Amino acid sequence: FNYKNLESSVNRSFEMVKGAKENGADPSFQVFSKVVSVVVSNPSTQKLSRSVNITFRHLEVIPPVYICAYWTETGAWSTDGCSKQDSNASRTICTCNHLSSFAVLMALHPIELVTKIGLTISLLCLTLCILTFKFCRSIQGTRTTIHLHLCICLFIADLIFLAGISQTKPVGGCRFVAAMLHFFFLAVFTWMLLEGVQLYRMVVLVFNATMRPLYLYAVGYGTPLFIVIISACVRPNGYGTKKYCWLSTDDGFVWSFFGPVCLVIFVNVFFFLITVWKLAQKFASLNPDLSNLAFTVTAVAQMCILGLMWVSGVFLFQEDPPVAVSYIFTIFNSLQGALVFIMHCLLSKQVRIQYICAKLRGSKSGQQTGESQI
């Protein structure tokens, strides 16, 4: 018997469900299929000699953790005698050694909620950064151009990650999402490399520190585009997995992302060491360069945040990653937008002055409007 709309009525009493603390987490549960009762003429169906297989269609096509369960006489869901034989984003096959009323439960881990909230905050902060770097006249220059496009790439990457990382169906759409994530996250690191080069030029070259925007665009977007095109031509099936719209870990294809990221980090570390050494020499003289020191500190902090995030990302997209790794990746992924806003906007004296002036102009304009109406 296939009960219509019964799943909403029995969406409770999950205390007896095994796997309630899978991998150390505390998920909440939700009935995620139609409730089906299986009966035969023989009343003794508590321990069958052979298990029965039941295929359930999911109410929605998303790939969280699924659990096979049955409704007990005490009015609760239980997994005793039932197990998951096979599962994908659209259906689950359960095998049970008794007959009763069955359904598929979806385990919702708290980390999913943390991810959504954190990335939403990150997107809001990145929006403020983009508006600041675009319209704040007093800070316009090569560094601001780099920060603007770094934030744009990070904003688009986070938006795609939030909306599409788990949308594995259709396969073509999942591959497109994976390719876009590959491109924009590579672009973030490329613009971060350009920031390291720019800091080096500001400290070492001093009088020839500007870079033409055309060159910045060519490197900032051309390099990741070249890598993605080569990767897609060599192995187009490497984009998208069964669980995530990301790069496949088979045959080392994922290193088409992590390889360039490691190279960027090593090159930037080299530039930052030289920059700090040159700044130390200036501090030894009577002309310390505090502004460039502040720029270097924020750039290093930014690189550490993104670097640590993707160090944990190496393990996140493996089969059954540890919950601790998932939380580390989620926390850094969620905080990066807020930290970029704090480091490059709130801690910048010029930007704070522009914020105050804009607020004062807004207040004065409001007063003038009120006086004219009177």
From TrEMBL:
Calcium found in the keyword field: yes
Protein name in the entry: Uncharacterized protein
Biological process, per Gene Ontology: adenylate cyclase-activating G protein-coupled receptor signaling pathway; cell adhesion; cell surface receptor signaling pathway
InterPro entries: GAIN_B, GAIN_dom_sf, GPCR_2-like_7TM, GPCR_2_ADGRE2_ADGRE5, GPCR_2_secretin-like, GPS
GO CC terms of this entry: plasma membrane
Membrane spanning residue stretches: 113-133, 145-164, 176-194, 214-234, 254-280, 292-318, 324-347
GO MF assignments: G protein-coupled receptor activity
Family note: Belongs to the G-protein coupled receptor 2 family. Adhesion G-protein coupled receptor (ADGR) subfamily.
Domain G-protein coupled receptors family 2 profile: 111-348
